[in-house]
Amino acid sequence: MRNIFKTVIVICMLCTFMLCNTIALANVENEKNFPVRITFDQPGALYHVREAGKAFIQLNEPYKKVIVELLDTDKKVLSRKSYTIKGDKNMAVHYPLKQKDLGYYTLKVIAESTLKSDTIEEGFGVIPNVTLTKKDWDSPFGICGHYARYDYKKWNIAAVQQKLGIAWVRDESNWKKVVEENLDSDPDLDYLDRHHICWLNLFGYINSFDGIQNDKGVWTWNKDVSILKSM
To answer: How far apart are CA 107 and CA 128, in angstroms?
Structure first.
């Protein structure tokens, strides 16, 4: 029962985290020239309980001091640490992470110079240790991945899903690319295989011009079906 409860927590955290992370990514896209950046050393800024990690605070202007606050989901300040900056710009502060409690946390960074003060926030999640080490075909948990539509390698989506223990992806296969480029396999599905993720295939490619019409006027796509069966 405890394992089931932890898994449900993970799913709920995934939904919350992805929503918050989407908002954070949107803000970063709108503030590409913002002089302070926060990045994390784990995919998706996800950490297991008591897993040691780091947040990297990049400073692109000559600040004198950086204050880092750790906030909980209610924006309560859990800790506050001050760093004196010695140097001009392009400096970095390495902030250690090692939380003992599950939850979604926020790092609030206040960078101060002689003339101004800049503030930025980024969130990270602390989850149970449920990382996938092999394919879990019996897992009831999955997501609609849409891997073929997005730059999944850039965002390292499979690694995030793998660490969350989400075993399944429901997604379209890129059969059009496989057929037209005469590939041996779908590169998107190969990517999932390398990350121990199970996939529920959808037919996303129907080419009625190259299909075969039988004597009853019904179109069939035997070539596509044969590729799926062989995999």
So the answer is: 20
Task: Give residue for tokens 């992470």.
Answer: 97
For residue 86 the two structure tokens come to 């010695």
With 0-12 / 13-18 / 19 or more C-beta atoms within 10 angstroms meaning exposed / middle / buried, residue 159 is: middle
Contact criterion met (CB below 8 Å) for 223 and 208: no
Whether pLDDT at 176 is above 80: no
In terms of DSSP H, where are the helices of the chain? 2-30, 152-155, 157-164, 175-180, 187-194, 222-230
CA 115 to the chain's CA centroid = 37
Average pLDDT over residues 140-152: 78
Q: What are 202's two structure tokens? A: 């959808």
From CA 115, how far away is CA 63, in angstroms rounded? 9
Quote the pLDDT of residue 18.
47
* Rounded Cα gap, residues 204 and 172, in angstroms: 5
Give the whole-angstrom CA distance, residue 204 versus residue 81. Answer: 51
Question: Tokens for 116?
Answer: 């101004």
What's the longest Cα–Cα distance across the chain?
Answer: 82
CA 69 from centroid of its chain's CA atoms: 24
**For 120, what's the count of Cα atoms within 13 Å in the CB-facing half-sphere?**
23
